[in-house]
Design brief:
Elements (H helix, E strand, L loop, with lengths): L2 E5 L5 H10 L3 E5 L3 H9 L3 E2 L12 E4 L4 H10 L2 H4 L5 E4 L5 H13 L3 E4 L2 E2 L1 H7 L2 E6 L2 H12 L2 E8 L3 H29 L4 H8 L7 H4 L23 H18 L4 H18 L7 H5 L4
Parallel strand pairs: 1-2, 1-4, 2-3, 4-5, 5-6, 8-9
Antiparallel strand pairs: 7-8
The structure holds nicotinamide-adenine-dinucleotide.
The site of nicotinamide-adenine-dinucleotide has 27 residues, from α3, α6 and α11.
């Protein structure tokens, strides 16, 4: 059993912390939201009155926050790096820009603490079921120390490289997802115009070279994949605003590194238009409405 501090008990952090409790760890949690803290306390998490309070006796501190700014604020201003005992391992699972991730590693190092960037894939469903994929960046020995803790929340734990490599993998993966979803949506919109039954397109493409996760796990039209958000009025799932955030991070990483990502840029633009039309809270597969010209 390990003592773990958990900061950020939102849609993802709440169920992740609950899985740590289920695995027999002791968890001290903090969130700015009082109602989330109360919900966490009902699950056996010690509700703390500040981020620094979660560090008491903790061997691991996990953060699951909205952006790099939030993470650096917590690292710089909440006093957790000063409060953490020597040897504490800082794990950040938020999806953030690579520069902030590297800055967070540097701050932890300055404070004499080990650190790992460990963003996740799998959404709220994966967080609840404990089947997340963790993509991590940091030293090998740090990765090995974190592995048993991450295994309580995920099914696949991958070391991608040194500091920031986990965030790099996350941004690249989600750029594929954002682009591929638009590709799949375009095919269904064209099929509609051609009078082709969507189920027929699904049956062909899901067993042909058009096969991809956006089609077979998350089909953007109702019918072929009953669990996909298209069957539930495009309730997320994975929201447009989160996809837009990840594509924006990918674009800024592409600009900084000099990578050419024209389809990533176009996908970012389309999700931006869709969000601006009032659909930021919809599931990202709802972008099919924009492509049909219906927003
Ligand atoms: P969320 O907004 O539900 O949760 C973030 C929580 O952080 C909130 O409850 C907020 O109150 C808390 N918070 C903010 N500042 C804080 C502070 N200073 N101290 C303590 N708590 C603070 O977001 P989420 O959906 O749980 O996502 C968290 C991260 O995971 C994001 O970076 C997101 O991009 C990433 N992510 C989300 C999903 C998803 O499907 N929701 C999937 C993969 C990755």
């Amino acid at each position: 059993m390990a003592h773990i501090g958990f900061i950020g008990l939102g849609h993802m952090g709440g169920p992740m912390a609950a899985n740590l409790i289920r695995a027999g760890h002791s968890v001290a949690g903090y969130d700015l939201s009082e109602s989330l803290l109360q919900a966490a306390a009902k699950l056996g998490i010690r509700a703390c009155s500040s981020a620094a309070d979660t560090t008491k006796g903790a061997e691991f501190i996990i953060t699951m926050l909205p952006t790099g700014k939030h993470l650096l604020n917590v690292y710089r201003e909440a006093g957790i790096l000063e409060a953490a005992a020597p040897g504490t391992l800082m794990i950040d699972s938020s999806t953030i820009d690579i520069e902030s991730a590297r800055n967070a590693h540097a701050l932890a190092k300055e404070a004499g603490l080990a650190s790992l960037d460990a963003p996740v894939s799998g959404g709220v469903g994966g967080a609840t079921a404990g089947t997340l994929t963790f993509m991590t960046g940091g030293a090998i020995e740090t990765f090995e120390r974190a592995q048993p803790i991450l295994e309580a929340m995920g099914k696949r734990i991958i070391r991608c490289g040194d500091a920031g490599a986990g965030q790099a993998a996350k941004l690249c993966n989600n750029m594929i997802l954002g682009i591929s979803m638009i590709g799949v949506c375009e095919a269904f919109v064209l099929a509609e115009k051609l009078g082709l039954d969507p189920q027929a397109l699904y049956d062909v493409a899901s067993t042909s070279s058009g096969q991809c996760w956006s089609l077979t796990s998350y089909c953007p039209v109702p019918g072929p994949v009953p669990a996909s958000p298209a069957n539930h009025e495009y309730k997320p799932g994975f929201g447009v605003n989160l996809m837009l955030k990840d594509l924006t991070l990918a674009q800024s990483a592409a600009q900084q590194s000099g990578a050419s990502t024209p389809l990533g840029a176009q996908a970012q633009q389309l999700y931006h238009l869709f969000a601006a039309a009032g659909h930021g809270g919809d599931d990202f597969s709802g972008i099919i409405h924009l492509l049909r010209g219906l927003t």
